Amino acid sequence: MKQKNLIFAGTLLVFLAAGQLVPLAFAQVYGNPTSQMTLEQSLRLARERVKEVQENPHAGSGTPYLDANGVIGATMISGAIFGGIFVAFVVRAKQIEKKRQQEKLLQ
Fold first, then answer.
1. Each residue's pLDDT tens digit, 78-89
2. Given pLDDT bands bounded at 50, 70 and 90, which one contains residue 54?
3. Cα 19 to the chain's mean position, in Å?
4. H or E element: which one contains 9?
């Protein structure tokens, strides 16, 4: 009985997840499914983007690697936060260990 319920719940979860992910998959391939952009409009927009990049070659890819909102900046910030939490846990564990050793010596 438990196994049937587990299989049913898993199947239901898969279908619900798939239902949520299908629109995202179409958005990756076809763009926004609700927009009525024609092929000509898409091509014109692509040409404008290429022209803008050719006119500004110094601008790069637009990915701010060293910015706080960029790849490396965000990695460093999250590393500092989680590293600080880790250090706090280690220090606290060492304090507790030292206290337990002192209690053993007193007994």
1. 999 999 999 999
2. confident
3. 21
4. helix 2-30
**pTM of the shown model:** 0.40
Report the distance separating Cα 34 and Cα 30, nearest Å. 10
Answer whether 64's CB lies under 8 Å from 70's CB: yes
> Cα(3)–Cα(11) distance, rounded to whole angstroms?
12
d(CA 107, CA 97): 16
CA–CA separation, 97 vs 103, rounded Å? Answer: 10
CA dihedral angle for residue 66, residue 71, residue 74, residue 76, rounded to 10 degrees = -70
Q: Are 33 and 23 in contact (CB under 8 A)?
A: yes
* 67 DSSP 8-state letter: S
Domains of the chain, by residue range, sit at 62-107
State how far the Cα of 23 lies from the Cα of 12, in Å rounded to an integer: 18
